[in-house]
Specification:
Layout (H helix, E strand, L loop, with lengths): L7 H10 L4 E3 L7 E2 L6 E7 H9 L6 H5 L8 E3 L1 E3 L4 H11 L3 E5 L5 E5 H9 L3 E2 L4 H4 L5 E2 L5 H11 L3 E4 L7 E4 H8 L2 H9 L15 E2 L1 E3 L5 H8 L7 E3 L5 E2 L1 H11 L3 E2 L8 H4 L7
Parallel strand pairs: 5-6, 9-10, 13-14
Antiparallel strand pairs: 1-3, 2-3, 3-4, 6-7, 8-16, 10-11, 11-12, 14-15
Helix pairs in contact: 1-8, 5-10, 5-11
Length: about 280
């Protein structure tokens, strides 16, 4: 399906009511190549591109922004060919800093692969690593619960993160995610409100947005166990018990890939088309 002419108001709603993180955009800007790496880039709409556009839009123009076509509000995700080694796919994630990429099956046939698929491979024991929670965790960023939503978005962009923890003893281990902000802004109630008061669309503080609680795990938990504890929600993350650092899907896959790589448990590979290619992944 092409989302090039789809209004942002519809795309934003789709992003928060489903597990889809990126919507491919056709009929807009053409694919092009990353200047340094020559990775082919495709236009897509996701939470990052939506929030980025909101940040640079004057509040009085929010109502107009909601009806802009998706082809004007895109991010650029990388791609790999179907027969490339999966190590190449990790490099695409690394270059673009997105955990989504297009896999080109042919000139006219593409599919999206995400970090979620690799987390599933960990859960199923197809790939493994000796890395522990402490080795791949990242320092968390916390803000007061009365932080304005617009300021929270700015901090996320400045630090290139998707979660902010709430600095409040009563909300310990709870965080706000970019996905929950999208859900808040594109909820039916908020969209009705913006029709009457477009300039006030982003009013509110992070305590007004649904918060998520991170599960606390031992610093020594293995990678495969972490993948099972992480859960299926897109914004889910874990916190280490001693260091209080955060573990996301990006940490689980990309930091492990850089630190230790993965070993392949060939007896668990089976017939899955993605799994079968793991034989080509560098250990």
């Amino acid at each position: 399906m092409s989302y090039g002419e789809t209004p942002l108001i519809i795309a934003g709603s789709m992003l928060h009511i489903s597990d889809v993180q990126m919507l491919p955009v056709e009929g807009g800007q053409s694919a092009h190549y990353h200047e340094k790496t020559k990775i082919k880039l495709y236009a897509a709409v996701g939470g990052y591109s939506v929030l980025d556009k909101i940040l640079v839009t004057d509040p009085k123009d929010y109502q107009r922004l909601l009806w802009k076509p998706c082809k004007e509000i895109v991010a650029w995700i990388g791609s790999a060919n179907f027969d490339d080694e999966l190590d190449s796919l990790f490099r695409v994630f690394d270059v673009t800093r997105f955990g989504d990429a297009s896999v080109d099956l042919s000139e006219d046939t593409h599919t999206i692969v995400t970090l979620h698929e690799f987390v599933d491979l960990l859960r199923n024991g197809i790939i493994a690593s000796s890395a522990t929670a402490q080795e791949i965790s990242t320092r968390k960023v916390s803000v007061p619960k009365d932080t304005p939503i617009i300021e929270a978005i700015k901090i996320m962009f400045q630090k290139r993160i998707r979660r902010l923890f709430v600095d409040d003893i009563d909300r310990e281990n709870e965080f706000i995610s970019s996905r929950k902000i999208i859900a808040y802004l594109f909820s039916p109630d908020r969209l009705l409100f913006v029709k009457e008061h477009p300039e006030r669309w982003l009013e509110g503080e992070i305590k007004d947005v649904e918060l998520v609680r991170a599960e606390v795990v031992s610093d020594t938990v293995s990678l495969n166990k972490l993948s099972r504890l992480l859960g299926n929600d897109v914004e889910a993350c874990l916190l280490t018990e001693k260091s209080g650092e955060v573990i996301t899907r990006w940490d689980l896959i990309m930091k492990t890939w850089k630190k230790t790589g993965f070993r392949i448990n060939e007896e668990n590979i089976g017939k899955n088309s993605l799994s079968s290619q793991l034989k080509t992944l560098d250990s």
